[in-house]
Amino acid sequence: MNHLLRSLAPISDDGWKMLDDEARQRLAPALAARRLVDFSGPHGWEYSATNLGRTAPLASAPCEGVAGLRRQVLPLVEVRADFELALAELRDADRGADDADLETLDRAAHQIAVAENIAVFHGWHGALTGIGEASPHDPIPLGPKPDDYPRPVAAAVELLLHNGISGPYGLALGGEHYQQVAQTAEHGGYPLLEHLQKILDGPIVWAPGVAGAVVISLRGGDFRIESGQDLSIGYASHDAEAVRLYLEESFSFHVATPEAAVALTA
Amino acid sequence: MGFDQYHEPPEELTAATRTFARLCASLTEEAEAIGWYEQRIAVESDPEAVEVMRDAQGEEFKHFSMDLEFLLRRAPAWREIAQGILFQPGDIVEHGEEAEAETFEGNGADGEGGYPSGSLGIGSLRGARR
Q1: pLDDT digits (tens, 9 = 90+) for A101-128
Q2: A62 cis-preceded (ω within 30 degrees of 0)
Q3: For residues B1 and A149, what is the distance between their CA atoms, to the nearest angstrom?
Q4: Pick from A23, A34, A229: which is nearest to B117 by CB?
Q5: Do B124 and A39 lie within an 8 Å CB cutoff?
Q6: pLDDT computed for residue B47 by the predictor
Q7: Which residues 211-250 of chain A have a CB within 8 Å of chain B?
Q8: Relative to the CA of B101, which of A54, A58, B27, B88 has its CA 20 to 30 Å away?
Q9: Could A230 and B121 be called an inter-chain contact, meaning their C-beta atoms sit closer than 8 Å?
């Protein structure tokens, strides 16, 4: 048994499989950052920091005749979303019910995906620097209507090319903007989604939690999530009525090439 | 060989799975080449030719290792089992059995999930369909 303490939960093997499958189904579409940036790991729950290869000076040395430096690392953060499930629902699922109420799990999955997206694209104050924060480029306004989006997206691609950042490129679109783009056909009926994909030569990703949008190079080596414990469901406690579980992960996010992305503001 | 590395219709596979299959095919080819050079070197009497083939075999060692590392990075369960077997002194079969048991321990009765450390095994979604 590891730190997730799953075997202490009053949940059958089939019940755990149902919960894991449900979590995967809810998480995968919403984890936008993992579709666009490099991903390293998982390196395990014990893994605590990302090597940056840099040092900081120390004010003093242990004795005369030597010099010292302190290694700089990027600590991993832990993110956790708690949820509670009724034991009666799990028992019914064991009996074969295929409509178990897992809404609390669904909400927790969505929230932790949103947290990862926000941390990567916008940053986490005091913990991680996000893509938008790190980018030296001035944000480009998206414009009021989806019809206007090809112009700022093309401008962002041109800006990246001008800075020597090759493609293909991806576009992370906040939930509302994504829906608008998916619904929109330009004059002549050509789907806006396909027009934008042609400009980017890459994917457009639904990114719940992202404000506006981000155009990012997919050439690799510019942005990296380093995973300690990848997303997992753990056990907290239970009583006669309910079991309290949580979704959790540990990760760091490192920006190696800040100029390889451009933020588009709503 | 055309598209022989795909066992299922390629259009039904994600880009990530197609990449995984390509690297599996590449790993197999590198292993075959290592074996072929081993045989050629064993029967060659010209020392200079042996030297050239040893150098070529070294390239295949490198290619095989790079393919393997790529695949292990994409397959957490494979990586965890490999960590229990590779570069360990002692009984290989014993290490294999132990590594397998530790990796999938509780996959059934303990409810530790189908991936190492009970994780959901999501990892990178580069190239994944929505």
Answers
A1: 999 999 999 999 999 999 999 999 999 9
A2: no
A3: 44
A4: A229
A5: yes
A6: 96
A7: 227, 229-234
A8: B27
A9: yes
Pairwise CA distance, residues A195 & A185, whole Å: 10
Query: With the C-alpha atoms ordered A94, A95, A96, A100, is the resulting torsion angle positive or negative?
Result: negative
Residues of A in Cβ contact (< 8 Å) with B74: none
B129 touches chain A (CB under 8 A): no
Residues 6+ apart with CB under 8 A from A188: none
> What is the helix (H) or strand (E) element at residue A82, kind and residue range?
strand A77-86
Residue A213's closest CA among A174, A244, A261, A158?
Answer: A174
Would you call A108 exposed, middle or buried from its count of C-beta atoms within 10 A (0-12, 13-18, 19+)? buried
Residues of A in contact with B118 (CB under 8 A): 2, 4, 6, 232-234
pLDDT at B119: 86
Which residue of A lies nearest to B109 if distances are taken between CA atoms?
A13
Which of the residues in chain A have pLDDT under 50? none
Nearest alpha carbon to residue A202 among A184, A219, A185, A182: A219
CB contact at 8 A, A239 and A146 = no
Nearest to A232 among B119, B126, B130 (CB): B119
ipTM of the modeled complex: 0.84
Which distant-in-sequence residues (6+ apart) come within 8 Å of A75 by Cβ?
Answer: A48, A49, A50, A252
* Distance to chain A for B38, nearest Cα, Å: 35
Identify the pLDDT of residue B107. Answer: 45
Q: Which two tokens stand for residue B77?
A: 């369960």
